[in-house]
Design brief:
Elements lengths: L13 H4 L29 E2 L14 E6 L10 E3 L2 E5 L3 E6 L5 E6 L6 E9 L2 E8 L8 E8 L5 E3 L8 E8 L2 E7 L5 E6 L5 E5 L11 E7 L5 E7 L5 E6 L4 E5 L5 E5 L4 E5 L5 E5 L4 E6 L3 E6 L3 E6 L4 E7 L8 E3 L2 E5 L5 E4 L20 E3 L2 E5 L4 E5 L1
Parallel strand pairs: 1-26
Antiparallel strand pairs: 2-31, 3-4, 4-5, 5-6, 7-8, 8-9, 9-10, 11-12, 12-13, 13-14, 15-16, 16-17, 18-19, 19-20, 20-21, 22-23, 23-24, 24-25, 26-27, 27-28, 29-30, 30-31
């Protein structure tokens, strides 16, 4: 493939949580569930502001409603839209009815016997699917992506991808599909047109799939071997701001796209996406993943902690420690959900970090999805759906 590189080679109460932003349906109590991508939206906030049904008061009464898509391999966390739950596994992408759990459609993977991990994004009635696979007889893995009609499963776009290596992140925003890859030689971020699959531009890789209203932060090595981070325009790949000798790990963007919260090493900082200026939020946090609400940022850290940072005072509100590493935190309905790397799911009061009483959840290898009054837990082989 020929390429042209552009650039340099929370929360005071449950009520407050549910009354901000407007990324999904306006009323989660009456509308179907909605969850666009692994971090909820392209901003990667991990915060569902529209969940008003499954609140802290109802968490203790959660019950297992059903188990779907059992006996699969490499099953990932779902995305939801239009009353459907979309599930990826090594054999197929399947849509289930959100209420009944019955299968609506199934799209067989073109490389079913060789597939492994995948990601999905649902946007504007389209389901974008990217996955890794290992062609028979090949010395290296490779990856590809497709666009399906979310209502029917019909194949809309099927780009031909032949590069060796694996993909890591999938980000879709402003009509652009961005795939973070790790080929045999150097990592790349490839941007394609959602409508026809044509390659638009390539650049360095992002730390996480974060878009600040069409601006993405990437990082890499320059031609002379120094670190660099760049803020790019999604549509063109043009460099808006460049930061030499530093890697900024993007965590989440504010819903208005004005700020990207980043982690250059141990500190938590905010990047003004319009001016390019950096400002310190809190030192010695060691953030790895984050859930961003209007008043707080909840970071899971490399120190196996959850740290709640007050964004107005720039002070640590509380810290909670665990015995193992943590996945992305999720905030929905006035509840903070924390998943450990060994598959345990905890529900916390986001105000003070106190534990909430919960049922014995099934093992979870992905951050939970909480929308439409239901909680989805995936262990890689089956999906457990909880509700009241």
């Amino acid at each position: 493939m020929s390429r042209k590189r552009k650039g340099l080679l929370g929360v005071a109460s449950a009520a407050l949580v549910t009354l901000t932003l407007a990324a999904g349906p306006a009323d989660a109590a009456t509308q179907p569930g909605w969850w666009s991508t692994e971090g909820y939206t392209a901003a990667n906030s991990g915060f569902n502001p529209n969940e008003s049904t499954l609140t802290a008061a109802k968490v203790p009464g959660l019950k297992l409603q059903r188990t779907i898509a059992s006996g699969q391999q490499y099953q990932g966390a779902p995305v939801l839209d239009g009353g459907r739950v979309f599930v990826y596994d090594a054999a197929a992408v399947t849509a289930y009815d959100e209420v009944t759990g019955k299968q609506v459609w199934r799209h067989e993977q073109p490389h079913a016997s060789d597939n492994f991990a995948g990601r999905m994004v649902v946007t504007a009635g389209k389901l974008v699917v990217a996955w890794n696979y290992w062609p028979s007889g090949s010395l290296y893995g490779t990856w590809t992506w497709q666009v399906l009609d979310a209502a029917t499963g019909k194949l809309l776009v099927a780009p031909q991808q032949t590069e060796d290596g694996t993909f890591q992140h999938l980000l879709v925003d402003k009509g652009v599909v961005m795939v973070s890859t790790a080929p045999r030689f150097s990592p790349e971020f490839l941007a394609y047109s959602l409508s026809d699959g044509k390659l638009l531009w390539t650049s360095y890789n992002p730390h996480q799939p974060v878009s600040a209203n069409g601006r993405v932060l990437v990082r890499g090595w320059t031609w002379n071997g120094t670190r660099v981070s760049e803020l790019l325009d999604i549509r063109t790949g043009n460099v808006l701001f460049s930061y030499q000798n530093t890697w900024y790990d993007s965590l989440a963007a504010s819903p208005d796209g004005k700020k990207i919260y980043v982690a250059p090493g141990h500190s938590l900082q905010a990047l003004d996406a319009t001016t390019g200026k950096m400002s310190l939020i809190a030192p010695y946090v060691y953030p790895e993943f984050a859930a961003l609400t209007p008043t707080r940022l909840y970071a899971t850290t490399t120190k196996h902690q959850v740290v709640a940072v007050d964004l107005s005072t720039k002070k640590i509100a509380w810290t909670k420690s665990y015995g193992t590493s943590l996945l992305r935190p999720i905030v929905a309905g006035g509840v903070l959900y924390v998943t450990t790397s060994d598959g345990k799911l905890y529900a916390l009061n986001p105000v003070n970090g106190s534990s909430l009483k919960t049922p014995a959840f099934a093992k979870s290898l992905y951050p939970t999805v909480v929308t439409g009054g239901r909680l989805y837990v995936t262990d890689g082989t089956k999906m457990s759906v909880y509700g009241n």
